[in-house]
Amino acid sequence: MIRIAFAGKGGSGKSSVSGTFARLLARRDRPVLAVDSDPLPGMAYSLGIPVDDHPTPDDVVVEGPEGGPKWVLRPGLDAAGFIDQYAAAGPDDVRYLQFGNSWGHWSTLQRGQHAWSQVVREMDPNAWNVVGDLPGGTRQAMFGWAKYADVLALVVEPTAKSIQVARRLRNITKAEWSPEHVVVVANRIDHPDDVQRIHDALERPIIGAIPDDAAVTAADKRAAAPLDDGSGPFVDAVEQLVDTVESSYDAVS
Amino acid sequence: MRVAVVGKGGSGKTSVSGVLARSLARHGHHVIGLDCDTNPNLGLSLGVGDLETERLLSLRDQIDEGEQKHAHTWADILDAYGTDAPDGVRLTVVNRIDNPEPD
Predict the structure, then answer these.
(1) Quick one: average pLDDT of B78-103?
(2) In this structure, is the dihedral angle defined by the CA atoms of residues A18, A142, A37 and B6, taken in order, positive or negative?
(3) B44 found inside a domain
(4) Best residue in B44, B58, B98 for a mutation probing chain A (most A CBs within 10 Å)
(5) CA atoms of B85 and B31, how far apart (whole Å)
(6) Which residues is A60 bridged to in the sheet?
(7) CB under 8 Å to A95, separation ≥6 — which residues?
(8) What distance in Å separates the CA atoms of residue A229 and residue A187, rounded to the nearest whole number?
(9) Average model confidence (pLDDT) across chain B
(10) CB B55 within 8 Å of CB B96
(11) Total number of domains constituting chain B
(12) ipTM score of the complex?
């Protein structure tokens, strides 16, 4: 099973890469659960799911026991049942679990977020390949939100700001909890020196180099998934990334 | 005037803020750049460089280690925790990253 989470600076391409990665992985006959923990979720677009807001009903949770989490899945509903009933169905049979968005009322949001956390924590790790999209920046990435992942992929553009954020993320993995593998995906590469520069700055394995592809921007403008726009340099590079992850980071379950 | 710049990650908040701050300063305004991002990069856009941008993040640790005094007023904060950027902009960072450079 492959369990990977994508992190990096806002706008570095986490959602585009992770959504495309999830669908290409699913085309290889793997059950794939795409998990989006960004409170401003963007992964649905790149998956090609025609919703950007997929809230769970309030009654999936009940008040938790004293001293425990505030909300827990209602009796009789476990992680598998939750995914079965409430994860959105996407193209290529990807299932999509959204953490919640930022425009609901806090009391409602909190229920959905507790449900999301419990499902990700308690789901059978051998039932799903998991592809996660973390929020931009460092706040959530390293503090327990990606514990489902064996591989943390830092998505990095060849810009000073993007590299700076990736360095901070990498450094936090030295001090805090970290997945087993911390790797780099270089994105929007438009010069031969870019990948080397990113490698020199981060000193982690670069498992993918994705060229700058105007088709991705064009797809973004139309709220379309890059994969539904046909193939191109971006899709080809993510396909290669799937090859690499399958050959090197497929955890034997 | 007090201007806050917001938007999606990667939309260009930091680049716009940095140019706006320096342009205002060039017009003779007294400008303070406040970086409130949990990933503070405004220093890069203002042109103070990556080392100085990271140094601003480590000031809190210097307080903890007794090397840096606490600041009690706005002026003290800007003095102790700020840095001079080009065109006379004074930059300070409101947030900081835990363990930006462990080891």
Answers:
(1) 77
(2) negative
(3) yes
(4) B98
(5) 10
(6) none
(7) A31, A32, A33, A34, A83, A87, A88, A89, A128
(8) 19
(9) 86
(10) no
(11) 1
(12) 0.73
Judged against a pLDDT cut of 60, whether residue A76 lies above it is answered with: yes
How far, in Å, CA of A177 to CA of A144, rounded? 7
Q: Does B101 touch chain A (CB under 8 A)?
A: yes
Torsion of CA A17, A23, A29, A33, to 10 degrees: 90
Identify the residue among B5, B37, B41 best suited for mutation to test binding to A, counting A beta carbons within 10 A and taking the highest: B41
Tokens of residue A83, six digits: 């995914």
**Secondary structure class of A143 (helix, strand, coil):** coil
Domain extent at residue B21 = 13-93
| Closest CA–CA distance from residue B39 to any residue of chain A (Å) | 6
Handedness of CA A208, A213, A215, A217 (dihedral sign): positive
In a domain, B3, yes or no: no
A19-63 residue pLDDT tens? 999 999 999 999 999 999 887 778 999 999 976 667 778 889 999
Q: What is the CATH number of domain A3-226+233-247?
A: 3.40.50.300
Residue B101 has pLDDT above 50, yes or no: no
- Is B50 in Cβ contact with A172 (below 8 Å)? no
CB B9 to CB A172 under 8 A? Answer: no
Domain assignment present for residue B8? The answer is no
Burial group, residue B60, by CB count within 10 angstroms (0-12, 13-18, 19+):
middle
Whether pTM > 0.95 for this model: the answer is no
Closest-CA residue to A131 (of A30, A220, A234) = A30
Which residues of A are less than 8 Å from B98 in CB distance? 172, 175-176
Residue type, A87: A
The domain segmentation of chain A, as residue ranges, is 3-226+233-247
| Residue B41 in domain | yes
B39: which chain A residues are within 8 Å (Cβ-Cβ)? 9, 136-138, 164-165, 168
Closest Cβ opposite residue B39 in set A168, A175, A176: A168
